[in-house]
Every structure is written in structure tokens, then in C-alpha cells.
Write a structure and sequence with these properties.
Largest sheet: 4 strands, mixed
Helix content: 25-40%
Order of helices and strands: HHEEEE
Number of helices: 2
Strand content: 25-35%
Mean pLDDT: 95
Number of domains: 1
Length: 81
């Protein structure tokens, strides 16, 4: 199974992710949890997916992370553990 891709993202997607991080005021502690998860090299399922960190969610599709959502915002796709 392919892994979620974190480097070499298209510039527009990368800019979108950074904008959402700022807009949604994701904390440093939350970003550290994301970093630890990224380092585990999670598999990328086909289709939409999301990982819930409690205070925020990261959503993606296939190998690409696509956006960040805040707690309480609904996410679609396969929930990753």
C-alpha cells in the first residue's frame, strides 16, 4: 500500500495546507502530534481519508493530505487510526 506523501507536494496544495494551519490556529502541541504520526509513515488508503487528533483533523485523498479541520467539523472518508 502506498504511503501518505508529505514532501514534494504541488505548490498550490502546500500553500493551502499552510494557510489552513494558520487560519485554524493549530497549536504547536497539536503539530507535534501530527509530526509523530507522520514519522510513523502511515499508509494511504484509496479515496478520501482523515485522521482525528482530537482538537483537529487532517483530511486527504489517496497519498495526499488535503486540508485541516477543527474539532466538530465533519470529515468524510476512512478514519485512520
Amino acid at each position: 500500500m502506498p504511503k501518505i506523501q508529505w514532501s514534494g507536494l504541488p505548490q498550490a496544495l502546500r500553500d493551502h495546507l499552510f494557510e489552513r494551519l494558520r487560519e485554524r490556529k493549530i497549536s504547536t502541541d497539536d503539530l507535534y502530534q501530527l509530526k509523530l504520526w507522520r514519522e510513523s509513515e502511515p499508509d494511504a488508503p484509496e479515496g478520501p481519508w482523515y485522521k482525528d487528533f482530537g482538537s483537529f483533523k487532517i483530511c486527504g485523498e489517496g497519498p495526499y493530505p488535503k486540508t485541516f479541520l477543527l474539532r466538530g467539523h465533519p470529515a468524510v472518508g476512512k478514519r485512520l487510526d
